[in-house]
């Protein structure tokens, strides 16, 4: 059976494409940066073997985000869970040196459009550590509404105050 892969999506400056082995050096760099890891909990792993497993575990909703000009990995966007073809949970991580350029906004916007028009999802959610200001700023700019902050809740294997955001597509 053919491997299910995320479809290519082009934006002004970026290409979203399936994960590939050539992404591994930059993935290692991203996941070994303490600022990137600060709110990601006990996952993701940071060793090369796990990165190989990660790039080979492709699905229809896990994208590498690469610069259009060079095809260089700068981050990833994923919908790790879809409930009843209706609700998707969105996640994203970008290399530290590529924060502050609007790349996350550009990439996540494109995935949201794909969720609406191709996957036909009706709602997206995001669960964010309440202290993760860059992520909260991004998700609010994307139009999500803060539903509640869940005190001392489970987030990626840790206990944190969790901001639950939701958006009707
Ligand atoms: C969350 C995360 C992706 C946000 O990245 P980001 O680069 O801050 O997000 P954006 O793409 O929205 O970029 C915003 C900044 O780019 C600036 N910018 C520059 N050029 C821009 C352009 N052409 N378009 C839009 N914004 C632009 C904006 O002014 C903004 O800066 P500001 O916040 O100082 O006003 C990043 O912090 C990250 O990877 N964190 C670690 C992983 C993580 O926590 N993931 C989320 C788990 S819930």
Would you summarize the structure shown here?
By secondary structure, the chain is α+β, with helices and mostly antiparallel strands. The chain contains five helices and eight strands.
Question: What can you tell me about this protein's structure?
Answer:
27% of the residues lie in helices and 36% in strands. The chain is α+β, with helices and mostly antiparallel strands and 169 residues long. The protein has a single domain (9-168), classed as Aminopeptidase. It has an eight-stranded mixed sheet, with helices on both faces. A hairpin with a 2-residue loop joins strand 7 (145-155) and strand 8 (158-168). The longest helix has 15 residues, at 103-117. Residues 36, 39-40, 92-94, 99-105, 128, 132, 134-135, 137-138, 141 line the site of coenzyme A (COA). Residues 36, 39-40, 92-94, 99-105, 128, 132, 134-135, 137-138, 141 line the site of coenzyme A.
List the helices and strands and how they pair.
Elements: E1 9-10, E2 14-17, H1 24-31, H2 34-37, H3 48-56, E3 62-67, E4 73-83, E5 87-94, H4 103-117, E6 123-129, H5 133-141, E7 145-155, E8 158-168
Parallel strand pairs: 5-6
Antiparallel strand pairs: 1-2, 2-3, 3-4, 4-5, 6-8, 7-8
Helix pairs in contact: 1-3
Bound molecules: coenzyme A (COA).
């Amino acid at each position: 059976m053919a491997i299910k892969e995320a479809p290519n999506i082009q934006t002004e400056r970026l290409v979203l494409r399936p994960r590939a082995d050539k992404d591994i050096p930059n993935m290692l760099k991203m996941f070994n940066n303490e600022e990137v890891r600060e709110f990601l909990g006990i996952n993701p792993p940071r060793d090369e073997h796990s990165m190989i497993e990660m790039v080979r575990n492709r699905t229809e909703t896990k994208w590498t985000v690469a610069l259009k000009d060079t095809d260089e990995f700068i981050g990833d966007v994923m919908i790790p869970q879809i409930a009843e073809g209706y609700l998707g949970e969105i996640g994203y991580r970008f290399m530290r040196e590529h924060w502050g350029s609007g790349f996350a906004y550009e990439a996540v916007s494109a995935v949201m459009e794909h969720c609406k028009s191709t996957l036909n999802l009706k709602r997206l959610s995001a669960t964010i550590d309440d202290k993760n200001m860059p992520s909260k700023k991004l998700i609010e700019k994307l139009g999500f509404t803060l539903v509640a902050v869940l005190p001392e809740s489970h987030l990626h294997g840790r206990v944190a105050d969790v901001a639950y955001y939701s958006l009707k597509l």
